[in-house]
């Protein structure tokens, strides 16, 4: 009976590592690259929130790439890459924690921007503009303003990790050097990277959903009590444009809330399992649970593109436009490169030095 159970566990691990994860990495990288290209288009980038979505997609791509070196290749070759490279020994966990922190705070900033847009629409342009968004992502103003730059916060939160491991040249092995420091700093990092964003995400998403429901009810009531002649008067192009913009904004909000909920559900099991292992002080972790929680993490990075496509008509429309532009450009390039008979050429396409020959 025990042998059967172990065989089933090994089968689950093998399916996750050799089938699910490679597909997730391949599809996820392509999907996130397409998401970046769509969000960078003119009709999308005018919404400030998509700058955070671009950062989230970049961190997803890099996080999926690290899974190849941390899980897939070591299991395929039967040895850890941390034992092969001094650099990877010190920085394999650092990159994973840094990119996870970037993803967490990108999703949190998305929810904050949506909260301003839905709950405080008249103050949204004042507090959340392109300048503040860019400062939040990439600027650095020193230790006095860490909250204005979550990239530096994520870097600082992850900086301790390379100093807790050591590479022994004699045995060619990467070993944990400071277990106590690793445990204490790891718990603090889990709280800052996962627990705090999770709590704020839950609160903000609840407030946003409640406000959207209230706004929809108030709008329906106001429309129903308007006199018929006032309804006709207010049915102008301006009113239609405002209504259309409101529908687009609600559509974007619904899409990004779905991404936030998916992020919370699929990434939270791994830090909970890690905390459980550290609190119980177990020397050997359960490989099946570890691989399953990691698979859920990487599935989260993969599924964002499909959520954008399913939940947002604006995203789908811009994606179709992008492919049509690429197709039209390729067709035009092929037509320009194709040889034409001289008598069928347009005179405007003939070089000036050749016109004398006509």
Structure in words:
Residues 140-148 and 220-226 have low confidence and may be disordered. The termini are far apart. This protein is 78% helix and 2% strand. The longest helix has 47 residues, at 179-225. Strand 1 and strand 2 form a beta hairpin. Strands 1-2 form a two-stranded antiparallel sheet. It has one domain (2-218, 250-326): Up-down Bundle (Rhopdopsin 7-helix transmembrane proteins). The chain contains 14 helices and 2 strands. With 358 residues, it is mostly helical. The chain has helices at 2-39, 42-45, 49-77, 86-119, 121-127, 130-138, 150-158, 179-225, 228-234, 237-267, 269-280, 287-311, 313-337, 352-355, and strands spanning 165-168, 173-176.
Strand order of the largest sheet: 1-2
Stretches with pLDDT under 50, minimum 5 residues: 140-148, 220-226
Q: Can you tell me the overall shape? A: globular
- State the helicity in percent bands: over 70%
Query: What's the helix-strand series?
Result: HHHHHHHEEHHHHHHH
Please give the number of β-strands.
2
| Tally of helical segments | 14
Gyration radius over CA: 26 Å
Query: What is the typical, i.e. mean, pLDDT?
Result: 79
Q: Structural class per helix/strand content?
A: mainly alpha
| Most strands sheet | 2 strands, antiparallel
N→C terminal distance = 91 Å
